[in-house]
Amino acid sequence: MPLDTATAVTRVADVLADAAARGPVLTLTGAGVSTDSGIPDYRGPDGARRVTPMSHQTFVGSTEARRRYWARGFLGWARFHAAEPNPTHHAIAGLQRAGALADLITQNVDGLHQRAGSPDVIELHGSLADVVCLDCGARFDREAIQLIMADLNPRFADEVTALVGGSRVSSQIRPDGDVVVDERAVAGFRLPVCLRCDADTLKPDVVFFGGSVPKERVEHCYALTDAASSLLVLGSSLQVMSGYRFVRRAAARGVPVVIITRGPTRGDGEATLRIDAALAEVMPALAASLTPDGSAGR
User: What is the pTM of this model?
Assistant: First the structure.
């Protein structure tokens, strides 16, 4: 039987308060933290994948694949960038400021933790706000690339609407910041090129499906896990190894693991405490309970 919110908060608060007295509490977040901000996750509550993510191999494999991504990303960026932190983001930031939580590892690429005021955020999979050239390594701000694409494709959005009659372009953004657009609508899209070397290999600085997290970033996260008194996992099914490995590491070292999310996770067997509940209900109440004046997360 699912726990009621008050009981769930009490149990999590007891574990975290005890852990915080012994050392830093590390947090790992996944896509479920941002769904209340209008950014969907890849998997439903049952863990089944709902959308197919862009793969690293596909993106680097051809100009046409990159054209497809950037055309969809050009249309989706305004909606993605307009997303605002939700109560869970603010609760986490409040708990960090209060000292109840320490460093934060996020699998998300939306920057909403930082916008909510969280310090010490490690973006495991990078950030959509940054763009890198795969040929020469030059780096650019996504907003600048967005403006370049707008200049190159001044009528693209109108042409898509006219072509598809509003039926082939989805209003739903995807976790990669793009939207679903019929293939026929992107054929004429002009790709942005690197401002340094003119290559058409600009890529959002994120780890696409099948790509690898930089080794030094992984090692840093391992070090944080080893130093933690507890690991709090929020909004992740832990289906991909990039996040799950830290749960395995913590459990192997006897570090308590608390998981709060809807539906089953790959790490349920390693969890010291498992809460199947909505983050929007649990986290603000948890933040209030772990600060003397109840102000964390406001």
Answer: 0.91
Please say if the pLDDT value at position 168 is more than 80. Answer: no
Write out pLDDT tens, residues 35-63: 999 998 765 554 455 556 789 999 999 99
- Catalytic residue, chosen from 89, 90, 113, 125, is 125
Helix (H), strand (E), coil (C) string for 121-170: EEECCEEEEEEEECCCCCEEEHHHHHHHHHHHCCCHHHHHHHHHCCCCEE
- Give backbone dihedrals phi and psi of 84, rounded to 5 degrees, phi first: -115, 150
State the Rg of the chain over Cα.
20
Going by C-alpha positions, the residue among 125, 101, 128, 83 that lies closest to residue 234 is: 101
Kind plus residue range of the DSSP H or E element containing 105? strand 104-106
Is 43 exposed, middle or buried, given 0-12, 13-18 or 19+ CB atoms closer than 10 A?
A: buried
56 is catalytic: no
Asked whether residue 257 carries a pLDDT value surpassing 90, the answer given is yes
